[in-house]
Amino acid sequence: MITCWSCNPFAPAIDETLGSAAGFISDQTSVEGVFRNFQYAYTFKDTLIYGKLLNKDFTFSYRDYDRGIDDSWGRDEEMRITNGLFQNSQRLDLIWNNIVSFTADSTRIIRSFNLSITFNPTDIIFVDGKVNLTLGKDEDGKWKIKHWIDESNF
User: What is the pTM for the complete model shown?
Assistant: First the structure.
């Protein structure tokens, strides 16, 4: 019988290998970091992280099928709407799928996704589609979303 005097399985040691490279939040110096932070913000309903994804002159565009027009709004409205989504949902599950297309300099990316929004156990909405993002680097070299064209089924 081997005795382990110094180990306690109910109080494991802190994993010192977890740092910014292995953590949940990216520094957004890569395009993949933008998508990782986007997913984190939705999963944990974190408006602070979500706000750091958006450029100061951000625009969201979508097709309003009920009115038959294309519509858009800016960063402040996007933050207000996203905060409402975060506050009124019990759970958000965002899955990023394949990148459909991208420019050589990564400033334009179209990527498919699946999003399930659980408001309560009997009210779950499933959204599938693509995000069509225009990205740019800020003065700190971090990627930010400048323009988001929604190409979803919602």
Answer: 0.83
Whole-angstrom distance, CA of residue 134 vs CA of residue 144 = 9
pLDDT digits (tens, 9 = 90+) for 1-34: 455 555 555 555 555 554 444 568 999 999 999 9
Instruction: Write the pLDDT tens digit of every residue in 58-84.
Output: 999 999 989 999 999 999 999 999 999
3-state class of 19 per DSSP? coil
- Give the single-character DSSP code of 22: T
What are the boundaries of each domain within the chain?
31-152
CATH architecture group of domain 31-152: Roll (3.10)
Report CA-CA distances (Å) from 103 to 30, 55, 99, 130, 139. 15, 19, 11, 16, 21
